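Tutorial, part two.
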Amino acid sequence: MNSANLPAISGSYALQLGLTTACRLQVGRLGEFDLPAGEYIYLGSARGPGGLSARLSRHLAGNQERLHWHIDYLRKIAIPGAICYLAGEPTRPPLECAWSQGLAELPGASIPAAGFGASDCRSGCIAHLIHFTSQGEPQTPLLHQLDIRMLLARIAGAPAAALGGWRLYPALG
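Running the prediction step on this input gives:
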């Protein structure tokens, strides 16, 4: 994956991560959490310099010396599987809250780390990290499954074709 392919403008994104074994993770001052194995979708926004390109490149690299965001702690142990984003939305509120609330209502979804990614959330989100139990080896990452892409697009009020993103590795599980 080449970060040059990511837009350098603001937007909201979903990052899918795979955790092959359960673990206990200390997340800065947020606390310690028991994270089950499975797939996770982290929801965020990129409004600063470099936009989506800068933010997702940082998350995908996962080798940060200075752990700034909650996701930096998880990226030390979890493998990125897919991304999905909506670029160029400077006048609307970030979608991370609406997306996390929508995904949390799906069958098989859970929130194992309350407050994760949502310490500055003003929308009442429990977390911006949603866990999905792995069911074998899916052929298509969650963020590329039609029902999930349609949900994200509907929440954004945009056509599914407006969502950018790609698969980062072939199979999750």
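Residues 51-61 form the longest helix (11 residues). In part three we will examine how such features are distributed along the chain.
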